[in-house]
Design goal:
Elements (H helix, E strand, L loop, with lengths): L4 E7 L8 H17 L4 E3 L17 H17 L6 E10 L2 E10 L2 E7 L23 E7 L2 E7 L3 E5 L6 E6 L9 H7 L4 E6 L7 H15 L3 E6 L16 E4 L2 E5 L7 E7 H10 L12 E5 L22 H26 L4 E4 L4 H16 L7 E5 L7 H13 L3 E4 L3 H11 L8 H22 L2 E4 L3 H6 L12 E2 L6 H14 L3 H11 L19 H5 L2 H13 L4 H11 L6 H17 L1 H4 L28 H8 L11
Parallel strand pairs: 1-2, 2-3, 8-15, 9-10, 10-11, 16-17, 16-19, 17-18, 19-20
Antiparallel strand pairs: 1-14, 3-4, 4-5, 6-7, 8-9, 11-12, 12-13
Helix pairs in contact: 1-2, 6-7, 6-12, 7-12, 8-13, 9-10, 12-13, 15-17, 16-17
Length: 649
């Protein structure tokens, strides 16, 4: 349970209808297997001790008594097993019968949660046997041998696991998730971060998709983990078939899902800390109604959860091509519509874009072309400016010129070597001293040229810098840092490449496609140092680290609120075989150091559109003081010895 992870299991055992002895044995085997694999929350199907399809046998006294005996046998077997277990059975109380879930921990029955919504439509006729459950917990007296146990009984029960801060479990049963006001909604508002659902949902054509949608929706709306376990093989097939469709979801994302028509155990690592972070971040998420609930403490032992879930190496980039192409089209539309609005507001009819032959300026030019096409403005009104200097290579220069011409924009070349050399002479900068002044002097001269041409043309300067560079502060203050509208400000570097690739794939122009593909094949570089044998001498990722690592750090730090040690752990897992743990740690330290030190550059960013769930605008998502200290984050990283995910003690 280290770093807030809890392993959950949705278990569908094979059963025999009305054979409570056999069913209890199979449930016990399922508990042993799931707990043996590290699961701490185990959920079995609705009425699994008897079987859901008993029909009028539920009215038989013997079946009900044997169901309770089966429950006691299961509870006894959980002694010494550090897991919270939910199993379903029929329960009698005051001459009424309830479809209930029993919560068990370490041999003790902690509570009974009755089903709140009893269906009596289509193939369901539960109201023939069962009564809807009460909300406020009452006392249920159960005999265990010669002793009486007093157990809370009601839907408003929460089970607080003491091993993880913020982990409270609420329970609902099958139909409860299908109604408009699901008990899960009240559970979550009262503090439950995990909802379990014991279900017996039969299969009909297309029902699995709707069922998955319900689970994803409930987990997203309630910002919760959701463990859904359904009955499977063994239930009567007299009129219905049960597929054992098990789903574990977290905040709208399915972590694990079983194949239907086969009894399985599926596991999922639910991140409680991330859920708590998201609830804190969402100021419209209301916590209320806890006073109407009884909270039962579960003294679970604190252990390190062996994580089996995966984390996307590139969280900003969908892995599947169809989804990735859709994302790229959407982002290009957001960027171009944002720029279009700026032109409509200002009445301006011209744009100035500095083009280097690199990825960022290529994307900015493509977006500008799209915006001008939407506005029915001649592309010749886009002034593409190439400004070769000391580090410019023939390859990038040629690509910049070809691209401007192929797209039908105006091309203007301003060689800034002489101007920069004169400026260095004015300030006493040695031309052979290739320090930060040497580099930034070129970047600032380029920005001055762009701004002055914009004045000449009555145009707007369209910025090219991307979000990853802004996160690291990898921009020259009042150089490439500045523009009149930054179209790439919300786009991380790992996504820029895919946007350009998508444009190349869909443009329908072979000449333009060839240029864009060569741009994609060119190393990322600011080209501020003289070339070596005609090739790029300065590769950005050699200096600041791989952008795929930095984008990974950026997403999980800002979007999910992960602390450095947890972020290091999942980065080592996700990039195993690509970067060793020492490399991950090195660049993670670089990320935090630069992120905190460079906020002053982000505090005065030009306008630019947000495109995803992470953004750095000081007027939008990131209200961070420029002089915030990163000491505590860096100190936590210093405690890590670099031994990888399992070495993070």
């Amino acid at each position: 349970m280290k770093h807030g992870f809890i392993k959950a299991a949705a278990v569908t055992p094979e059963i025999k209808v009305a054979d409570t002895v056999y069913n209890a044995e199979r449930i016990i085997l399922g508990i042993e297997e799931a707990a043996g694999n590290g699961a701490k929350i185990l959920v079995f199907p609705e009425l699994c001790i008897t079987g859901y399809t008993c029909g009028d046998l539920f009215l038989q006294e013997l079946l009900l008594r044997k169901a309770e005996e089966g429950l006691l046998a299961i509870a006894e077997h959980t002694r010494g097993i550090d897991a919270l277990v939910f199993v379903g059975l029929p329960i009698r109380r005051e001459n009424k019968l309830y479809n209930a879930a029993a919560s068990i921990y370490e041999g003790k029955i902690l509570g009974f949660i009755p089903k709140a919504n009893i269906p009596a439509y289509a193939e369901f006729y539960e109201s023939r046997h069962f009564t809807g459950g009460n909300r406020e917990p009452v006392e249920y007296v159960m005999r265990n041998g010669g002793e009486e146990e007093r157990i809370p009984f009601g839907t408003n029960l929460l089970f607080e696991i003491e091993g993880i801060e913020g982990l409270k479990v609420g329970c609902e049963i099958c139909e409860d998730i299908w109604v408009a006001d699901s008990p899960a909604n009240a559970h979550a508002k009262a503090g439950a971060t995990v909802i379990v659902n014991l279900s017996a949902s039969d299969e009909t054509v297309g029902k699995d998709e709707y069922r998955e949608m319900l689970v994803k929706s409930s987990s997203a709306r309630n910002i919760a983990g959701y463990i859904y376990t359904s009955a499977g093989e063994g239930e009567s097939s007299q009129d219905l078939v049960f597929g054992g469709h098990n789903i574990i979801a977290e905040n709208g994302t399915v972590l694990a899902q079983s194949k239907r028509f086969g009894n399985q155990i599926v596991y999922g690592d639910i991140d409680i800390h991330r859920l708590c972070h998201e609830r804190r971040r969402m100021t419209t998420y209301r916590q209320e109604g806890a006073e109407r609930y009884l909270t039962v403490k579960v003294p679970m032992r604190r252990e390190k959860t062996e994580i089996t879930r995966t984390f996307d190496r590139m969280p900003f980039v969908p892995e599947e091509k169809g989804k990735r192409d859709k994302r790229c089209e959407e982002i290009l539309s957001i960027q171009s519509f944002g720029l279009k609005k700026r032109y409509q507001h200002t009445g301006c009819r011209k744009a100035v874009v500095g083009i280097s032959g690199g990825l960022d300026s290529t994307l900015a030019l493509l977006v500008t072309v799209r915006a001008f096409d939407m506005l029915s403005i001649d592309r010749k009104n886009i002034v593409s400016v190439t400004m070769p200097c000391f580090g410019t290579t023939d390859r990038t220069y040629d690509n910049a010129c070809k691209m401007a011409k192929t797209l039908g924009t105006s091309l203007r070349e301003v060689n800034i070597r002489g101007a920069v050399a004169r400026h260095f002479e004015d300030i006493g900068q040695d031309m052979d001293n290739h320090d930060i002044t040497y580099e930034n002097g070129q970047a600032r001269e380029r920005t001055q040229v762009l701004m002055d041409i914009a004045n000449q043309e009555n145009a707007l300067v369209v910025g090219t810098g991307d979000m990853s560079e802004l996160a690291l502060g990898w921009a020259t203050y009042n150089g490439d840092h500045m523009s009149m509208y930054g179209v790439n400000a919300g786009v991380p570097k790992t996504l820029v490449r895919h946007l350009v690739q998508y444009y190349a794939d869909t443009c329908g122009d072979k000449e333009l496609e060839a240029v864009l593909l060569d741009v994609l094949d060119t190393p990322v570089s600011p080209e501020l140092l003289p070339p070596v044998d005609g090739a790029i001498a300065q590769k950005t990722e050699d200096l600041v680290g791989p952008y795929e690592l930095h984008d990974f750090f950026l997403y999980y730090m800002l979007r999910c609120g992960f602390e450095p040690e947890k972020l290091y752990r999942i980065a080592c897992m996700s990039f195993a075989g690509q970067y060793d743990s020492e490399v991950v740690l090195k660049w993670q330290k670089t990320f935090y150091r630069r992120f905190f030190a460079q906020q002053f550059k982000r505090s005065c960013l030009p306008d630019g559109p947000k495109v995803g769930s992470v953004a750095l605008s000081p007027r939008g998502d990131l209200r961070m003081p420029s002089d915030a200290c990163g000491r505590i984050w860096l100190e936590e990283l210093e405690k890590i010895d670099g031994r990888g995910a399992d070495g993070a003690k």
